[in-house]
Amino acid sequence: MANNKKMVEDITSMEVDFAKWYTDIVKKAELCDYSSVKGCMIVRPYGYAIWENIQHLLDAEFKRTGHQNVAMPLFIPESLLQKEKDHVEGFAPEVAWVTYGGSEELEERLCVRPTSETLFCDHYKNIIKSYRDLPKLYNQWCSVVRWEKTTRPFLRTREFLWQEGHTMHETAQEAIDETEMILNIYADFCEKQLAMPVVRGKKTDSEKFSGAEATYTIEAMMHDGKSLQAGTSHYFGDHFAKAFEIEFQNRENKPQTPHQTSWGVSTRLIGGIIMTHGDDNGLVLPPAIAPIQVVVIPVAQHKEGVIEKAQEVKERLAKQFRTDIDISDNSPGWKFAQYEMKGVPLRLEIGPKDIEQNQCVLVRRDNREKTFVSLDELETKVTELLQVVHDGMYEKALQNRENRTWSALNLEELIQIANEKSGFIKAMWCGDAECEAKLKEVAGVSSRCMPFAQEHLSDTCVCCGKPAKSMVIWGKAY
Amino acid sequence: MANNKKMVEDITSMEVDFAKWYTDIVKKAELCDYSSVKGCMIVRPYGYAIWENIQHLLDAEFKRTGHQNVAMPLFIPESLLQKEKDHVEGFAPEVAWVTYGGSEELEERLCVRPTSETLFCDHYKNIIKSYRDLPKLYNQWCSVVRWEKTTRPFLRTREFLWQEGHTMHETAQEAIDETEMILNIYADFCEKQLAMPVVRGKKTDSEKFSGAEATYTIEAMMHDGKSLQAGTSHYFGDHFAKAFEIEFQNRENKPQTPHQTSWGVSTRLIGGIIMTHGDDNGLVLPPAIAPIQVVVIPVAQHKEGVIEKAQEVKERLAKQFRTDIDISDNSPGWKFAQYEMKGVPLRLEIGPKDIEQNQCVLVRRDNREKTFVSLDELETKVTELLQVVHDGMYEKALQNRENRTWSALNLEELIQIANEKSGFIKAMWCGDAECEAKLKEVAGVSSRCMPFAQEHLSDTCVCCGKPAKSMVIWGKAY
C-alpha cells in the first residue's frame, strides 16, 4: 500500500503516551480492528496467527497432562447461573442476556457464557457416578462475553478468546495439586515461550474468582510498571459440586462430593506480549509464537541472481522455521521498518556482496545486533539466534521488573512510592480486607498477589501496624 | 463402569428404527450429550477429538490455498444484519437476540451471528482500498446460532461448530473460481478422508443461500437413502459489497466493487460420518479422522509377559498412529464390543500364542476381517490395512448410493419411486420453481442439486412436460 511508509512512522513514542503507543501498535501491526459492536474486536490474521501459536503450544501441554477438549454450549439459562450464590453475584451484573429466539420471547432468558463453571457442573452431574469416573479433566477453547464498561483491545474486551479448563477430582488434595500444576504450566509457558517473567502467587480473598475457595495467579510486569494478571487457576473445593448436587460412589461405596478446579488464559496474553516487549519501532515478538520467525529481505534485488538466491535461502529456512520473504518493490529501508513494526525476531539480509562471499546478515529485532553468517551454517545459526533473542527479551523484561520492584515498611513509604514510582510494591499485610481497601483508597494500589516466594520484610502490616500474616505485592493493574 | 456391558448391547438396530439407532450411537459412543439449553449440545471428548481431526486436515488445505484465519465478533447489530435485503429475510426469523447487557437494556439489539457475511463486509469496507489489497481470503472457526424448532445432535442444533470462509476478489471470474475450488476441497476431503462419496452440484434458486447469486453443494447419501448437504460454497457477485459500499481502486485507477464468496462445513459432517458408515455394532470411523486408529487388546492378559508385550506394541505404534491400549480388567469380549461401538478402525489382539509366534491379529472394524501379522512388519501392515479399511468403507458407501439411485421420466414414476424407495431420484427439470414446489407437495422430495455431471434422461420436465433445462437430483434430506 502506498501509505505504508507513513504508517511505520506514525507510532506514538511509548515514553510520551504509553496508552496511545499501545493502541497504535495494535492497529498498525494489524493485530486487530474495531468492530461495529462497541467493545468487541476483530482479531486480524496476524493477531490470530499469534493466538494459534499460543493455542498450539498450550494445548499440547494440556493434552500431555491428560486433559481433553470439549465444547459446551454458548448459553446458560438464568436458573443455572443462579445455582451458586457467590458466582452469580460476581457475574450477573456483566452478562449479555438473550431474550428472544427469532420473533418469540423466551420463557427463560439465557446469558451468553461469561465463564462455564455452571455448564460443566450441569454436565458433570450426568456423567460422574463413581470414583472410576474421576478425575474428569476437561478444557475448551472458545470465546466468552462480559459486558465491561471500559474496553481496550486484547486487555479488556466484551468478547474475548480464551481456554477454560474445568476439572473434577476425588479429593481436595488432588484438586489443589491440579490447580498448582496448571499454574506452573502457565508460568513456564509465559517464561519459556513468551519470554515474560511472572510472579506466581495467591490472590487475596477480595481479589479471588467469584465462587472460588482460592485463586492462584501469575502476575507479569508491563514496560510501564503496571501489572497484568496473565493467567489464573482456581480451587473451588466442593461449593459448586454441592450446589449442583454432584455425587459419586467412593472407594468405600459411599456417596461423596467431588472437588473442583477451573483455570484460564486468554487473548489478554497478546496484550501482555505487546506491553512487555514492544518498543518505539513496534512489536517485538517472542520467537516461539511469532507468526514469522525469520523474514528474508533481498538487498539490491534488481541485480542478477539476488532474488533467486534470497528465495533459495527462504525455501531452505522454511523447512525448519516460520519464514517469509519480501520481494516487493518497496525499498529495503521500508521493508526493515515494516517487519520491525511486525516484531519479526530475525531479519535476514542478503545482497550481491553477501552472495559472493557465501554469507548473509542476520539482524536481531530485540536489539538490532547484526551477525554475518556463512550460508553453510545458516540453520544452526538461526536456531541459535532465535534462542539468543528469546533470552535477551526475557532478561530485559526481568531487568525492568527488578528495576521497578520496591519495598515499603510503612504506610507513608508505600504512598510515596505509589505516587512517585511505578511498579510492584512489596509490603507486609495483616490479612484484613479493610487494610486492602484503605491502600486502594490512599495509594491507588491493589493487591496483585501473595507470592509463593514469601519474604519477611517486617513483623507488622504496612497499613494498620498489627501483626503481619504475609507479604503482598501491591500495584496498579491492567 | 459396571453397566458398560449393558450399554453396548443397548443399541437399536438401524433396520428397526434408523432415527433411534442414530441417537443411540451418538449417546453411547459418547460423542455428545444434551445440555440444559434446548437444542444446544455438549460435544464430548470423543466427539470433539473427531472435530479436531477434521479441523486439522481442512485447516491445512485452507492455508495451503492461501487462506488466513481471523476471529470476528459473536454479535451483529440489527442494523448491520439488515443491510442486505435477501440475507436478513432469510436469517432474521431464526436468530437469537441479545437485548440486555448486565441490567441495562441495549439501545440496539444484537443478534448472535447465524453466519458472518455482514461482519466480514463491515470489516472489508475498512481494509479494502486498492486492487493490491485483493484477494482477501479469510476464514474463521467458531460456532453460530440458528433458532431451529426441531433439532437433532450434529445434524441440526441451535448452536453448531463450523468454519466459515469469506473472500473478496477483483473480478467475478476469480470469485467463481474460488467458489468452485473450495467445493472441490470439500468434496475431496469427504471422499479421501471421510470415505464419504458426494455429488457435486449447484443448488436451484429456491434452495440457495439467502443473498447468494449461486450456491454450490456437495450432497452425500446416508445409509437410509436420505441426502445430507455436507458442505456449501456460495458465490455472491457484488450484492453484499454494494449494500456495504465496499469499493477499491482498480488497475485503471477507477473505483470498482469487489466480488465475494463464502463457504462452510460444520459438525454436521460428524452426523454424516455416523449415518454413512455406522452399523448395528456402533460407529465405524474413517481412519483419517478416528481419534483412535488402532486399539491394542491383550488376550489372556493375566499370563506372564502379555501386558508388557502389548504395551511394547502400543508404544511402537503410537509413534506413527493414534493408538490406545485397554488393560482394564474387563473381558476381551467386552473390550471388543466397546471399541467397535467407538468405531476404532483396527483392533490389535495379542495373546500368549501370538507372542510365541512373534505375531498379532489385526481385525478390521468395517467388516471384522482378521489378518495375522508378523510383528516384524507391524507398521507396514497397519498402514496398509488402514488404507484398506478406508477403501472398503468408501466402496460400501458408494455401493449403497448406487443401489439407491433411481431415474424417473414422468411424474407418475417419480411419485412411485418416492413412495416405495428411498434414495436419489434423477429427473429432468424445466427450471421453474413451481414444478419444484409441486414435487415437494405430491412426492415429498426436494431438489438436492443440479449435478455438475449432467445426464440427458429426456427432453422434458418430469413435472410439467415442458422443455427441460437440467437434470436434478431429488430426494429427502436431513
Provide tags for this entry.
homodimer, 478 residues, Rossmann fold, Translation Initiation Factor IF3, 3 domains, 11-stranded mixed beta sheet, 36% helix, globular
Question: What percent of residues of chain A are in strands?
Answer: 25-35%
**CATH superfamily placement of the largest domain in chain A:** Bira Bifunctional Protein, Domain 2
Unreliably modeled segments of chain A: 1-7
Count the helices of chain A. How many?
Answer: 15
Q: Give the quaternary arrangement of the chains.
A: homodimer
Distance between the termini of chain A: 34 Å
Main β sheet profile of chain A: 11 strands, mixed
What is the arithmetic mean of pLDDT of chain A? 96
Examine the coordinates and then state which fold CATH places here, giving the name of the CATH topology of the largest domain in chain A.
BirA Bifunctional Protein, domain 2
What share of the residues of chain A lie within helices? Answer: 25-40%
Most extensive chain interface and residues per partner:
A-B, 59 and 58 residues
How many whole angstroms does the radius of gyration of chain A measure?
25 Å
Shape of chain A: globular
Number of strands of chain A: 23
CATH class of the largest domain in chain A: Alpha Beta
Major sheet strand order of chain A: 3-7-8-14-11-10-9-22-23-21-20
Alpha-beta content class of chain A: alpha+beta
